[in-house]
Amino acid sequence: MGIVKDSSITEDFVLLDKMSGHEQVVFCNDPATGLQAIIAIHNTTLGPALGGCRMRPYNSLEEALDDVLRLAEGMTYKCAAADVDFGGGKAVIIGDPKTDKTPELFRSFGQYVESLGGRFYTGTDMGTNMEDFVYALKETNNIVGVPEVYGGGGDSSVPTAKGVLYGLQATNQVLFGNNSLSGAVYAIQGLGKVGFKVAEGLLEEGAEIYVTDISDDHVRAIMKKAESAPGIARYVPSDEIYSREADIFVPCAFGGVINDQTINELKVKAIAGSANNQLQTEQHGVELAKRGILYAPDYIINSGGLIQVADELYGANKERVLIKTKEIYNTLLNVYHQAKIGGQSTIEAANHICEKVLETRGRRNNFYTRAVKPKWDIRN
Ligand code: NAD
Questions:
Q1: Ligand 1 atom closest to Cα of 251?
Q2: Is the pLDDT at 43 greater than 80, yes or no?
Q3: How far is the CA of 294 from the centre of ligand 1 (A)?
Q4: Mean pLDDT in residue range 320-340
Q5: Is the pLDDT of residue 366 over 60?
Q6: Which residues contact 131 (CB under 8 A, 6 or more apart)?
Q7: Structure pTM?
Q8: Which terminus of the chain has a lower count of CB atoms within 10 Å, N or C?
Q9: What spacing in Å lies between the alpha carbon of 192 and ligand 1's midpoint?
Q10: 90 has catalytic annotation
Q11: Are 108 and 37 in contact (CB under 8 A)?
């Protein structure tokens, strides 16, 4: 028998509707430690859900729920594109990372993760760091991205930056018919953990780069690198980076950079960088395609870090991570090709490829049971 709707509980149905695309949503409430968190598992067709844990002082439970649902769904696509044996999930802790963190809070969070019996693996995201999860690790093994001494793979920005460089090679292959990094001109926004390494890699290859960052120290550091590298670096004020004439815009700072305003300023042939959620809406991806600007879907080009944390479950191995990260080159070439032959934007083509993977694997998984210890459970 289905649920009978009653107009007095309409709001509950709005909530249920929101969550209907997700397999499981867990609300965690522990008054003893003050933990209030939500864990969302979107889809486990490819394996247990994997996704970071954000900590933010959300204004309402609804805001936190919207965030975790959206981010968990995004992880399903990211895992499918990276071909890691994980599904999509995410967690959010409601609280101020500057004032509300305690070891007990993260131990409590670890207990909730453990209670999911291996259906959810998590680690750092905005507002949380590796040290926080050392406490969660006392309660559960299902934590990734911890310091190397605890079995983690190390700084994830290293493979992320490598993946971006492979993605830039694939983009050059389509733009210029060769995958050399040296011939193109790049406009890099953000010289943080990832952007700096990307800029450094390009300078070492002899490329010409324009750079911007709101941190003078970061700009100075890359200028210093450029002095002894074959490439050339030039500084651009941060509001001029969008209109800089270059071959490729490389966003490595924050999301929403492709929006109604910036799209009209762009004078590049392609966009390929590490920032998450670069398109303000998917429609902006369609608009880029109409304007003949090649867009590297962010969740594919920036998946090096995900590949590393997923690899930890087999015992961290940097060489294996590098081999898999290199695949970003072929994955992106395939996306560009499918978009071209399908007359679609690259973001539509990428999403379609991921949905096909989920559909095929979902059907195939019906042929056998997972009664035995699954392959990914190596740490336990
Ligand atoms: P980060 O915080 O180390 O670096 C961000 C940099 O952007 C900082 O140097 C900051 O000063 C600069 N910045 C901020 N606002 C700016 C502005 N208006 N103009 C120019 N520069 C500005 O972060 P990160 O780890 O290098 O990540 C960069 C992006 O890549 C983020 O969107 C992140 O979500 C995404 N990403 C990172 C990883 C990873 O492994 N670190 C993995 C996947 C995606």
A1: 29
A2: yes
A3: 22
A4: 97
A5: no
A6: 147
A7: 0.90
A8: N
A9: 5
A10: yes
A11: no
CA-based nearest residue to 199, from 227, 168, 222, 173? 222
Q: Hey, which bits of the chain come out as E strands?
A: 24-30, 35-43, 49-50, 53-56, 87-94, 120-121, 185-189, 208-212, 232-235, 248-251, 270-271, 294-295
- Residue 155 CA: which ligand 1 atom is closest? 40
Judge if the beta carbon of residue 156 lies within 6 A of ligand 1.
yes
Centroid of ligand 1 to alpha carbon of 322 (angstroms): 21
Out of 78, 90, 197, 324, the active site residue is 90
C-alpha 200, offset from chain centre: 22
Q: Is 160 in the pocket of ligand 1 (CB under 6 A)?
A: yes
User: In angstroms, what CA-CA distances link 317 with 23, 85, 123, 158, 354?
Assistant: 31, 16, 18, 13, 26
Confidence of residue 18 (pLDDT cuts 50, 70, 90): confident
Q: How confident is the model at residue 2 (pLDDT cuts 50, 70, 90)?
A: very low
Please, which pLDDT band fits residue 57 given cuts at 50, 70 and 90? very high
Q: Is the CB of 52 under 6 A from ligand 1?
A: no
- Ligand 1 centroid to Cα of residue 329, in Å, is 22
Q: What type of residue sits at position 367?
A: F
Is the shortest distance between the CB of 188 and ligand 1 below 6 Å? no
What are the pLDDT digits (tens) for 245-259? 999 999 999 999 999
Cβ atoms within 10 Å, residue 225? 16
Q: Is the pLDDT of residue 197 over 80?
A: yes
Neighbours of 71 (CB within 10 A): 22
Is any atom of ligand 1 closer than 6 Å to the C-beta of 54?
no
